[in-house]
Hints:
alpha+beta, four-stranded antiparallel sheet, 40% helix, transmembrane, membrane, DUF6585, transmembrane helix
Amino acid sequence: xxxxxxxxxxxxxxxxxxxxxVFWLVMGLVFIYGVVAVLLALFTSVHLLPRFVIEGLLxxxxxxxxxxxxxxxxxxxxxxxxxxxxxxxxxPGTLSVDEHGLRDGATRVAWRHVHTLVEQHQEDRVxxxxxxxxxxxxxxxxxxxxxLRQTVLDHVVPRLMEDVDRQVAAGxxxxxxxLTLSDAGLTHKGKLIRWDDIESIRxxxxxxxxxxxxxLIIVAQGxxxxxDEAKVPNAPVLLAYLSxxxxx
Length: 248
């Protein structure tokens, strides 16, 4: 089957301030400041917080646990969750996309060179692995982020679908992280799920302890299998292939 991406005139997306990253930056600084304040109060005469706050924290059930994990948590939150803010300071003013690829300043990614696409829903990113490395498209930094994401999918997914079709038709298996696709069906954890047994497949947003994720849900023989989309390389390609296969 031949898939053709829609024609696309050159379009520019403007750099925007990542307000969502400010929250994570402040949270990380609060963690680090709290740990430093407690340590200084314990071992020096410097008090960054009132004494009753320090005493109340140490007497609480989670006080020493906070001392143990507060610093690494603060560093993680700033370095990972708030990283969009640091990238924003050195990002170009616009990102342009056309039928050939995308350009981010001096970085150019051609659609035909992309071999793997990973959507990181929790971080609001699309990672494009291409022949020269990997490009992290941070959707939170650009205007019209939904349109930008859809444009990327419209041009990358059809090309990768052609490769999957060709491999399956040749009797080969195609790996999608924990899933393996073949002409016989879909294999998960060593168990083959035949095409006739698959009742439905969909993506579903989940919120677990404040962390937003997107799950790929496969229902077969009355049993649901949930797989984190971020752990499935080329998940949109797999979903498109399965939807097409099951509808046919």
